[in-house]
Design brief:
Blueprint: E1 11-14, H1 22-25, E2 31-35, H2 40-43, H3 46-53, E3 58-62, H4 71-84, E4 88-93, H5 95-107, H6 117-120, E5 132-136, E6 148-153, E7 158-163, E8 171-174, H7 184-202, H8 210-231, H9 239-252, H10 266-278, H11 282-296, H12 302-311, H13 320-337, H14 351-363, H15 376-385
Parallel strand pairs: 1-8, 2-3, 2-4, 4-5, 5-8
Antiparallel strand pairs: 6-7
The structure holds 5,6-dihydroxy-NADP and zinc ion (ZN).
Length: 387
């Protein structure tokens, strides 16, 4: 097991009816910027519950943050924070709103001339973010309990992640009933995203990390078990399935399964390019790339792939390569069973996009994956494999 340090200061408040806890979580009289997206919260009752919870605070609303939050939108909220001396930001939404809020909260205290440097320059020293909390409406990213954020710039066709050590949410409220109003496409995006986060930290080097391995396997098995209930067409899923899904998503990327292990993240980096260049949802990109990466990197990941085949998919074939083939097929089959496409051609994405991604990775001298094993050439092979 590798050495590690663990800290996660976010206060998690979980369960039915918990949005009302805003009453005691945000002090009366606080000047609050409430950030949200395109309006789903006004249809499912979350907006009203939040407004009720913030009674007695001075609330400025900033709606309209798009999925894959855009720098040029967020920068307008940064101006509001500065002009109005906002004291606290409350993000109400999915990963895009929370990520966007992390950027706003950091940029509001940033002294440099060009706030885009927060996102693209990993040498930049980031200021402590303005205090913020979240009301999560979409289980997927775990942004509610980590310090990462992914910001897009449509004017440059770019999408990059940044991490702020002083940028965790102060609290996050997770009421599983928010899942009831989610379109099935968003539920399946959330399932794939959580599955991929878990694999990024699990399917790497064998380091005898028994606790993290079994936690990760528990998350994967929970997703596989709950998926049919979560995706059923007739009605919304039952409460406990929503609760299990929501907690799984948070645990997938809040630091617990990362303790002492190597991490990959090449699938995410390739996926971000597919979103930036072709507009696919984040979850859609991962469902395509992951099975390809498993196959192309099978030698380097042999030990963990075999463990994954045995323990997650119960494949006991003595032929190890065959067992791994079956596990890759099972993975792709699982994504397809929840309505995801798994090939580039199904979205009309061709060779030109593959070439552009390889060109960008080469230009940036990126060596992705654990120990830099995913070179630009490997990225090409992965994308060719899922054409
Ligand atoms: O904008 P509204 O109208 O609210 O609709 C949203 C949006 O269209 C809708 N939605 C959210 N909650 C709903 C709902 N509709 C009905 N009922 C509800 N309860 O869902 C749509 C997608 O929302 P979005 O926030 O974009 O989804 P998600 O949570 O999947 O976030 C994706 C973003 O997070 C980044 C991705 O790259 C992408 O930009 N990620 C962030 C990470 C992090 N911070 O740690 C890690 C991830 O790997 C990921 O990269
Ligand atoms: Zn993700």
């Amino acid at each position: 097991m590798n050495n590690f340090e663990f800290v996660n200061p976010t206060r998690l408040i979980f369960g039915k009816g918990q949005i009302s806890r805003l009453n005691d979580l945000v002090k009366k009289g606080t000047k609050v910027l409430m950030t949200y997206g395109g309006g789903s919260i006004k249809k499912n009752g979350v907006y009203d519950q939040v407004k009720e919870g913030l009674k007695g605070c001075e609330v400025i609303e900033f709606g309209g943050i798009e999925a894959n939050p855009d720098y040029n939108t967020l920068i307008k909220a940064v101006d509001i924070c500065k002009k109005e001396s906002v004291e606290f930001i409350l993000a109400v939404g999915g990963g895009s709103i929370i990520d966007g809020t992390k950027f706003i909260a950091c940029a509001a205290n940033y002294k440099g001339d060009d706030p885009w440097q927060i996102v693209v320059n990993d040498k930049e020293t980031l200021p402590a973010a303005l205090d913020f909390g979240t009301v999560l409406t979409l289980p997927a990213t775990a942004s509610e309990m980590n310090n990462g954020a992914v910001i897009s710039r449509r004017d440059l066709n770019q999408k990059f992640a940044f991490h702020n050590p002083n940028g965790f949410p102060k609290f996050s409220i997770l009421d599983p009933t928010v899942v009831y109003s989610l379109p099935k496409k968003q539920i399946s995006n959330g399932i794939v995203d959580t599955y991929a986060h878990t694999l990024e930290q699990y399917l790497t080097t064998c380091l005898d990390t028994k606790v993290m391995d079994r936690w990760a396997e528990a998350l994967l098995l929970t997703l596989i078990e709950e998926a049919p209930e979560l995706m059923k067409a007739e009605s919304h899923p039952n409460y406990d399935s929503c609760a299990n899904f929501m907690l799984t998503a948070t645990m997938g990327l809040n630091g617990f399964i990362a303790m002492g292990v190597e991490q990959d993240w090449a699938t995410h980096m390739i996926g971000h390019e597919l979103t930036a260049l072709c507009g696919l949802d984040h979850g859609e990109t991962l469902a395509i790339v992951y099975p390809g990466l498993m196959d192309v990197m099978r030698k380097e990941k042999h030990g963990k792939l075999l463990q994954y085949a045995r323990r997650v998919w119960n494949i006991d074939d003595k032929d190890e390569e065959k067992a791994i083939d079956m596990a890759i097929e099972k993975t792709e089959g699982f994504f397809r069973s929840i309505g995801k496409k798994t090939r580039l051609s199904e979205y009309g994405i061709g060779q030109d996009v593959i070439e552009e991604i390889v060109r960008r990775f080469t230009e940036r001298s990126w060596r992705l994956g654990e120990n830099g094993i995913v070179t630009p050439e490997k990225a090409r092979m992965i994308l060719e494999r899922v054409k």
